[in-house]
Structures are given as structure tokens and as C-alpha cells.
Specification:
single chain; 107 residues; alpha+beta; Arc Repressor Mutant, subunit A; two-stranded antiparallel sheet; 2 strands; globular
Length: 107
């Protein structure tokens, strides 16, 4: 799983959000301007939906119409998405332990 996908799933694990909210939460957590580009974000959201990792739960139409934009789609993580993100987090933790010298590998 790539870093952008992992971050999207991690953000959605803490609650539903639209694309803009996802990007803002990634940037706030990772530090300014460390989120995916807009095209990458939408590509990853589409891939996550195709894999069954996220689902659309609603659309905010009224505020979007006032701004002349289509409704923002709110997404949430699914059980499968939570399991995939958790598995990735556990893999990452193992590598972090190696880096921090908490585990010694052979060689």
C-alpha cells in the first residue's frame, strides 16, 4: 500500500470526510504541504472505493450549490479498509522497530 492510500485510510478511520477534509487532515497531521496532489488524492480515493476500502455516505449539496460546485461527497472507511490499513500499520511498525534498533535482524 502506498503512503497516500495509507494516510487516506488513517484519516477516514477517525471519521467521515469529504476530499478537501481528507487533504486538510493529512496535511495537518503530516505537516504543511505533505499531502498528495489533488489528482493523486482523487485517483487514490477511486482506487480505495474500487477495492471496497471506502464508501460514499452522503453529499453536502446546499453549501456546494451556493459556491457553484457539485456536491462534496463524504466518505467513510469500511471494515475491509480498516483491516487493510491496520495490516499496513503493523508492517510499518516492524520496519520502524528495525530502524530504531528495537529488533535485531540476522546479517
Amino acid at each position: 500500500m502506498d503512503q497516500d492510500t495509507f494516510r487516506i485510510l488513517a484519516v477516514l478511520a477517525s471519521g467521515e470526510a469529504d476530499a478537501r477534509g481528507i487533504l486538510e487532515r493529512i496535511e495537518r497531521t503530516a505537516g504543511a504541504r505533505r499531502g498528495p496532489t489533488i489528482p493523486t488524492l482523487y485517483r487514490r480515493l477511486s482506487e480505495c472505493a474500487e477495492r471496497g476500502w471506502i464508501e460514499i455516505v452522503g453529499t453536502a449539496m446546499a453549501a456546494s450549490r451556493e459556491r457553484g460546485r457539485p456536491g462534496q461527497r463524504y466518505r467513510r472507511i469500511t471494515r475491509a479498509g480498516r483491516a487493510a490499513a491496520r495490516a499496513e500499520a503493523l508492517r510499518s511498525r516492524q520496519f520502524a522497530r528495525l530502524l530504531l534498533g528495537e529488533e535485531r535482524g540476522g546479517g
